[in-house]
Design goal:
single chain, 384 residues, mainly beta, 16-stranded antiparallel β-barrel, 3 helices, 17 strands
Length: 384
């Protein structure tokens, strides 16, 4: 309890102080000549992370079960063509998805967390005009405020709300803009089901240069498959659910402030052995301040309510969506100072998650019954 109060005070103090830029900054792509393809850009991220945690999770012998360890967080090369009628984007390599309240895993394309393979993002883009385009392939999700890869975010670990969202979906996406409005609509396979029956959408209104408001939604158009052999990323429970979110972003000078609220509803399904419908909902506040051109500080506070009734068969469903037991309530606090100069970056992170769970359940610890977790992390590497 004393640790919890000390950490809470540290994070609140950090949030009250000047805070972060939107994410790590990838340098402009290196342009190379590709013959008939013309000029293409090459970028990349090479980074590793070390961690300490007080209540490990995971199977003994795995990275997540250790009190301290290290792994690669990014080892990716991005090749893209971003001009002309025909464009493309491809990202290849290894990566890891460190997430609050979830077991840590290594950066190995064959591991269960790196389930999008060695080519996680790859799509062809057709852009007949500046305000309309179409993308087809393996696409990053439209859902949520945080990206899939660590360098895309102000914090090293993704948050509790991110854990409910799809990361990559295969499908087709249409993008359009007119004045202050922009919209994207995607027909895809949801949580990587390889069955194309999910519709995702994102609508953004730019109020002015400093303020934007966005709404997103995702849900199935028909029946989802019960399982997808050899596809570790697939979540039947996620694909059958509907998810909605509202985001507001203020960005001016060194400040970025982004609160968002997210609601997920999972229906009763005899086929998927979901005995009763339930809801997950929560809110997150991300606050960031660039101290100068090299140093920034980021903070995140979250609350997540996980639905379900103990003993009614929902435990495995709720846990697979959020890594928390059914009928639980969780808070998280995260602070991440970052240094980036040129291609080099280094950052540290301290996070705390606490949950109120039904008697006899938990989300962490070697016996799975711990209801709080402290993690310290460092990440360093190069972006080019």
């Amino acid at each position: 309890m004393k640790k919890a109060w000390i950490l809470s005070a540290a994070v609140v103090a950090a949030l009250a102080a000047p805070m972060a830029d939107a994410s790590l900054n990838l340098p402009n792509p290196i342009e190379v000549s590709a013959g008939p393809l013309g000029k293409i850009g090459v970028q990349g991220a090479i980074s590793g992370l070390g961690f300490w945690q007080d209540n490990p999770q995971g199977v003994p012998g795995t990275l997540g079960a250790k009190y301290a360890g290290a792994t690669i967080s990014n080892g990716s090369v991005i090749v893209q063509k971003s001009s002309g009628l025909l464009q493309f984007y491809a990202q290849a390599g290894v990566y890891s998805f460190p997430t609050l309240a979830a077991s840590l895993t290594g950066a190995n394309p064959t591991s269960t967390i790196n389930d999008f393979g060695a080519l996680p993002i790859a799509y062809l883009k057709i852009a007949p005009s500046g305000n309309f385009s179409m993308e087809i392939g393996k696409l990053p999700t439209l859902i949520g405020a945080e990206g899939g890869f660590t360098y895309q975010n102000i914090n090293i670990e993704r948050g509790l709300l991110w854990d409910m969202e799809p990361i990559v979906s295969r499908g087709i996406q249409f993008n359009a803009s007119a004045g202050p409005l922009s919209a994207s609509l995607s027909w895809n396979d949801g949580y990587y089901s390889n069955r194309y029956n999910v519709l995702s959408g994102l609508l953004t209104y730019t109020i002015n240069s400093a303020n934007t408001l966005a709404f997103y939604a995702d849900g199935p158009l028909g029946k989802v498959r019960e399982s997808a052999p050899n596809i570790a990323a697939y979540s039947a429970y996620g694909t059958v659910s509907q998810i909605y979110g509202l985001m507001y972003t203020y960005s001016s000078g060194p400040w970025t402030v982004e609160p968002y609220f997210q609601y997920m509803t999972t229906p009763k399904s005899a086929r998927l052995r979901i005995d009763k419908s339930f809801d997950n909902y929560g809110g997150s506040l991300l606050v960031n301040y660039a101290v100068d051109s090299d140093i920034s500080l980021a903070g995140r506070v979250e609350y997540l309510d996980v639905g379900g009734v103990p003993g009614e068969g929902l435990e495995s469903v709720a846990s697979s969506l959020t890594d928390l037991p059914d009928d639980s309530h969780a808070w998280s606090l995260t602070v991440t100072p970052t240094y980036q100069s040129g291609d080099f970056f280094a950052r540290a992170e301290l996070s705390y998650v606490t949950a109120s769970t039904p008697t006899g359940t938990g989300f962490a610890g070697q016996n799975g019954l711990a209801t709080n977790q402290v993690r310290g992390m460092v990440e360093t590497g190069f972006l080019f």
